[in-house]
Each structure stands twice: as C-alpha cells, then as structure tokens.
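Sample intake sheet
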Amino acid sequence: MIPRRRFLQAAAATGAAVSLPAVSALPASAATRPAEGAVTDLGPASVASPLGNGEFVGDVLYMGSRGLDPNVVGAWDLGTDSIAEHFEITTGIGIWAMCKVGTDVYVGTHSRSDLYRIDTVSREVSKLAEYPDHFIWTMAASPDGKIYMGMSEPGRVVEYDPATGVSRDLGQPAPGEAYVRSIQADDTYVYAGIGSNAHLIAIHRQTGEKRELLPAELLDRDWVSSMSISDTHIAGGLNSTAELVVLDKADPTKYRIVKASAAGEKYTVAVLIHDGWVYFAGRPTGTVYRVPVDGGELEVLGVPFPEAQTVRLLEHGGRIYGLQDPGVFVYDPATGSMDYASHVQRGFRAAAEAPMSVHSDGRVVYVGGKSGADLHHLASGEVTRLDIPGEPKTAITVDGTTYLGIYTQAALYAHRAGDAEATLLFRTGHNQDRPKDLAYDRATGLIAMSTQPEPGHPNGALNLYDPRTGKLDTYRPVIERQTVFSLTAVAGTLFLGTSTQEGLGSPPVTPTAKLAAFDLRTRTVAWELEVLPGIGAVMDLAHTPRAVYGITNTGVLFEYSLVERAITRTLKVSERGGDLLISGFTAYTSDVNAVYRIDLVPFTAKKIVDGLASDWFGGGSRLNIAPNGRALYALKERNLISVAIHPRLG
C-alpha cells in the first residue's frame, strides 16, 4: 500500500507538478504597506487530480477527473503502465458519469450537463448534446448501444441514441424526487436508483411503464446511490445505512439485505456484480466487501486506502479495479492480493481544482479541497499537502491549533502547523454530513460547529466540543426545520444565522432565515427573530463589542445592537452574500467577482477589488482574514490571492 502522502510529489519527476511563485512576508511598516485593495497572487490555490469515474476499453483504463479546469480523461495503458494520453472535456466542473459502447467512451459532466464521446480509435472528442439539468450524475449503456443518463435536479432519466443523435426524455421515475443517483439498463428495462427518498424504479424501455422494485421495508431509506446488474440479479447500494440489497430480476420479491460490517460505515458508494459475487465499497471507512450473489456470508476484502471514496468498481482481466481520489486499487480474487496504483505517478494530469474553503493561522493559509488541504507557507512560498479523508469546508485557529470541519461525516479534525497529519476529534452523527461554520467562545472554552443534515433529512445540528476534555454535545434541532449556517460567539452567547435549507433535495418548509442567540451555559435558545422577510440564509456572522453583524444570501448587511437588542441598521452591499470578516470597526465581504469594505460607524460600503471571477466549488464565495488584520485571502479564478487592507482600528 502506498503511503498517505501527496501524489503530486511523485508527479514532479514526470513534469506534471505545478510550480508556485515565492511569496514574501507582508511588510511590517504601515508606511511601506501596499494600498488597500492591492492584490498579490500566491499561485494555484489547491492542486489535485481527483477521479470521478472510469471505463475500460481493451487494456486501457479511461479515467475522468473532477474539479479540474479543464477536466480530462486520462488513458492508463496497462501494458506500458503509464498514462498514454489525455482527452480534454472543456465544459462542466467534473466528470461524474462514464460508460462505453464498443470502443467509444461516453462522458457526462456536472454543472453544466453535457454529453461527450471519445472515439478511442480516431482519438477524437465530440460534444454530442447538452441538457438543462444541474448535472449528469450517472450513466449506463444498454446491450443494444443506447445511452441512459440519470439527471439530478430534477431527477429524471434521459435516453440518447448514438445512431441518430436524438435524446428522449423518460421523465421522473419518482415524481418529486430530485436525484437519480444510479442507473443500469438491459434489453428490456432501465433501472433507476433514486434519492433523497429511496426508490428503485424499473422503466420499460419501449412503453415507459414504471414499477417500484425496492422492497417496502427499505422505502424509508435515503438513497439507492449505486447499482450493478447481471443477467439474473440487481444489486443496489443504500445510503445512509451502508446496506446492499440484492434482488432476483425474475422475481424481485426474492431479495436479501446485507449490512456493511465496518464500524461507522454509512454509505455504499460503488457496486459490481462479477463471477457470482457482488463487490461493493463503503464510506467513510473505505472498506471493500464482497458477498455471494446467491447467498452466503459477507467477506471483508480490506481497506486499500483509509477513508477514501470509491467512485467506480470495474472488472478487467479477472481483477477488480476501484477508482478513488488518491488512485486505483486492484484486487485479485485468485490470490486475494490488494495493490494500489497512483494515477498521478503514472502521468495523470494534476491541476488547480475549484477549492472549498480558505483559512489563515498567520503563518500558513489552508485551502480546502478534495481529500485534504493545500498549505501555503507565507514566509517561504512553499506549498505542502495535508491529507484528510473528506473535504474541509470550514476552519478556525484557537491557541495554535487549527480545527477543520470535514464533509461528508460532519467531522472535526485538529492540526498544528508543522505536523504531518491532522487528528480526528469526532464525527457528529445525528444524520449530519456538511459542516457550515466554526466559532470559539473564550468565556466557556467551547468550540461550536454547525452542520447541515444529510440529503433528504430535516433539521441541522449544533455541535459543542470542549478541547480540554474531548466532550461533544450535539443539539438537533436547534432552530426547528432549519440549518445553522453561520456562528459568532460573544462572552458565553453563541449567535446563530440560519438557512431555510435542510438536507439537500428537501424543499424548505420555513419561509425565512433567522438570527438566534444560544446560551452556552444553559444550552438553550434564548431568542430567535426573522431578520428580513423572505431571505433564504444568513451566510455569515461577525461581531464587535457592541453589535453582531450578518450578511444575507441577497447581499444585505444587518446590524443587531447588543445594547438595544434589536436590528438597528441594514445596508445593501452586493447581489449575493459571502463570508463576513471584521477587524476593528471595518468589515469585509465578497461575492464571486469583488471584495467590499464596509465602514461600520457611518455604515457605508465600497468595492476595493473587482474582476476576480473566483471559482469556488459549489459557486459560493469564501474570504478569510490574516490574524494581524493586514490581509484578506480570496481567489482570483483558481489562484489564491492576498488582498491588502487597512481597517479602522479605533
């Protein structure tokens, strides 16, 4: 097994590494400091090579990337054990879906939803179609060469005929459900796995007739998130219970349910039926399992890379290949051996991804991406990699320790600059998966992390962690039928900014986001109020000694006076809200194109940086401030930048 170190280091020998400019320390003298709004480019924010899917044609494994610009399909020739060629996919933020027909590889993209074909004989890439859906999540080919795509938001199935170039809408297999997360097809049916309320629907390819195959006892699950079929069986992976259901095609009432055995397993992320076995992979542990199709005991094959997500399982030459972010594992059923291969070491392109978070402890800027964070060392300009299983969504530094909130398990990790690895402190549980914000209250010594529920689930949670004792307390719900998006702590009171969005795929049931106060000593909500009518979210909160400030998803800044205990002023800053930072009596916020300075005494705003076109994953806007108050950290396209600032301190 390869060590858990950045594969990009090995790629340097192949010429795939990205060189980064040296960065000088920020000037100490106010007289020599650059003007407010001056931008320093710190190079690619997060360099990665995460995999989204793959497909074999002959002895070549075609692997699609996600999060790169442009995304690529790299051709790993097993004969030469190297990446023979890259094919650029010029639209979309990732390749989540792939299948093949003969020697042609088909690629489906995420946001935007485009369909491509790679002719592996002529080496030509062709864009075939585009669709209005958020993304093509999954795709499969039928035996007669039709392409079936599972779309998300809305959850529908689309057929594409390569012979005619015509797309046919097969509609929503489960009306009202937003996600088709797995799909397979045989001569007669298309099988669609649905979320965020689980369904397994068979659609007759000629008549369009639909029927539910999922056993009634499983209809309260969240997702049928992965699937494989054979001539005789269907195997579907279920979230968030880490189960596998195996059904008899001829009689779906004949089925069995297998539970993944690793402690803490929640997701069945990839499934493959091969040679009388069902192989499947779990998350978050990264464990690989198999079970006989016709009955028998579950077998644990191993953990090829701890906590890595398997995006696809494939069979080739009698071996099982599993594609993950760090690389590809290869299991040989004949010998029971499990090997691991770095796709980057073999020449797969590493490039700047769309990152997810930014945070500075004063010496290092953490940029969160897929499977960890790039650490930009400000004094030297060096960039190192901190591997973390998952995606850092938010971070805070307290007394020299940086705490990182990690998706998907709503986990909290701790890291001290200079340490090789981060330490897992807890996973939240309580059907939560996405950390939204972190805050520290010095009066009680508590670290607070707010989290969003898993897709389809109600009620976000507030998680209070005491670093002195390691004790964790989780409160769910906090604000009924809402998620807490933003936090700021003032002398034992935690202020909460909420969102009407609960788990993804669940329509909001409350009309307006709120501001609330949570007493950290009594552990109760002291009060809550609607800030402005109809707003969807309070994106971020910050405070001065006299007031709490928040910014809404519509770009409106509000002031809540701690003296008057009321909203006292509002100000339209931008068209969309982002992170909000305060230094002294000056606040800063951003949208995807600009950074704004807000003078809190006169309550006025002005743009100090424009033209950023920042490319954050998910389309949001992130911003962080240096502890010394002299710089902001943001993105210009996919490069990390520092922005000089001169806040009013008195």
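Comment: The longest strand covers residues 432-441. Helices lie at 7-11.
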